[in-house]
Write a structure and sequence with these properties.
Blueprint lengths: L1 H13 L8 E8 L4 E7 L9 E5 L7 E4 L3 E6 L3 E11 L16 E13 L2 E8 L2 E8 L5 E2 L3 E4 L5 E4 L2 H8 L7 H5 L5 H14 L5 E2 L9 E18 L4 E21 L7 E5 L2 E13 L8 E23 L4 E14 L4 E6 L7 E4 L5 E10 L3 E8 L8 E14 L2
Antiparallel strand pairs: 1-2, 1-5, 2-3, 3-4, 5-6, 6-7, 7-8, 7-13, 8-9, 9-10, 11-12, 14-15, 14-24, 15-16, 15-17, 16-18, 17-18, 18-19, 18-20, 19-22, 20-21, 22-23, 23-24
């Protein structure tokens, strides 16, 4: 069943879907300084791109603009990238990789810089994975990096080179901007953006903020009731007990999912956490005759297993038309037993009471495929890999149909 389910997911992933990553109105300027209106595939770049896809019309051929052939491109009034030959310091901020040099280690590179503020003074951003650098220029001067670097001191402490404050003070003077204001600016996007807007206003220059569209629904809380089909077989060779195959049972499950949408790549990725209550209760009677007795022994196995599952995972969306989307997710499932979960073994030929064994489980994995409509209603099929019972050889498998109603 597991192989069939994974194959099903593979087929779904290989099908064509209508992605929310669409072609939007934009422009680019080529090396001949020609401005060409077009439709650009907006993938909401997390890292600064080196190329982009565009079409000259809705039904036109998809082409690629590269950093070698295009000096500037933009989408609407919220995304603009400018090619520039700059000196960039790629020193790590990770304390394990800091060097003893206070000065930046510059390397000359041709990059697409993301324009954040445009005016008399311009602010740019370059982002590449964990690297984040800000650049600026003013009055058509050359673009240069705002310097901020962490380094190790001779006594193995961490020092900070915040020369960007001196750069701002030396180059962007204005009567309304004091040295105290500059000293309070952290090397963060919002604080630098506010400063450049303030400087442009102080210099009687219009200041255009070029920033990504505001993301909505970066957090969703969803009530997730459902039905769970579960099967279990166990044995314990050390106790000389025979295999016990409990019947497949249908049970209820109730979860509350917290979904954290990642603010890049058009909201297609999310982290999910879903505390879930589930239970499995079954009984099995087995007739055994280990010593060729006249009257076989009757052994009754009763399992009462309740737990709080805690899946932690990642989800990927595929957007369709009409406010619909499908998704796949994978989770690592932590399992915490509750309510004295136990396995009871009763030999009816003996007078003494049942042998009660506390159930302890190990963690497992879960894979899901689902559909969501209007960011409100959803349904998911979820398969759980085998969950081992400690001290027993076990085969505990389950499959769930989960319904979702997003509260907010």
């Amino acid at each position: 069943m597991k192989k069939n389910y994974l194959l099903f997911l593979l087929i779904i992933l290989s099908t064509n879907t209508y992605s929310q990553i669409s072609f939007e109105k934009g422009y680019f300027i080529n090396n001949s300084n020609q401005k060409i209106d077009c439709l650009i595939k907006n993938i909401d770049w997390k890292n600064n791109p080196i190329q982009f896809e565009y079409k000259l019309s809705d039904n036109g051929e998809t082409k690629t603009g590269t950093i070698q052939s295009v000096k500037e491109f933009g989408i609407g009034n919220y995304s603009k990238y400018v090619r520039s030959n700059v000196k960039i310091d790629r020193s790590s901020k990770n304390t394990n990789y800091l060097n003893y040099s206070k000065n930046p280690i510059f390397k000359e590179e041709v990059l697409y810089l993301k324009l954040l503020v445009e005016g008399k003074a311009n602010l740019y951003l370059y982002e590449d994975k964990n690297l984040k650098r800000f650049f600026f220029n003013y009055d058509n001067s050359a673009i240069e990096q705002l310097i901020f670097k962490k380094y190790k001191t001779t006594n193995n402490k961490i020092g900070t080179n915040d020369s960007y404050k001196q750069q701002l003070w030396s180059n962007l003077k204005c009567k309304d901007i004091s040295i105290k204001i500059i000293n309070n600016i952290d090397y963060k996007e919002n604080e630098l953006l506010d400063f450049f807007v303030k400087y442009n206003q102080c210099s009687n220059s219009e200041s255009l903020i070029i920033k990504q569209k505001q993301k909505q629904d970066l957090f969703n809380l969803t009530l997730r009731p459902g039905v769970k089909s579960t099967s279990l077989s166990i044995n314990n060779r050390n106790a000389n007990l025979s295999d016990v195959n409990f019947e497949n049972k249908l049970g209820l499950r109730l979860g509350l999912e917290a979904e954290f949408i990642m603010p890049f790549n058009k909201n297609k990725w999310a982290l999910i956490i879903e505390p879930t209550y589930q239970y499995y209760k079954s009984e099995k009677t087995i007739m055994v005759n280990p010593f060729d007795l006249v009257i076989p022994q009757e052994i009754i196995y009763k399992i009462d297993y309740k737990s709080i599952e805690f899946p932690v995972g990642i989800r990927h969306y595929f957007f369709l038309k009409n406010n619909s989307k499908i998704f796949v997710n994978g989770s690592f499932v932590l399992d915490f037993n509750v309510g004295n979960s136990s396995l009871s073994i009763t030999n009816t030929s003996l007078i003494e009471g049942p042998n009660v064994i506390e159930i302890k489980t190990r963690n497992n994995l879960a894979f899901g495929f689902g559909y969501k409509h209007n960011d409100k209603y959803s349904v998911e099929l979820r398969y759980f890999t085998n969950r081992d019972f400690r001290y027993w050889e076990s085969d505990y498998n389950s499959f769930s149909i989960i319904f979702g109603f997003t509260l907010f």
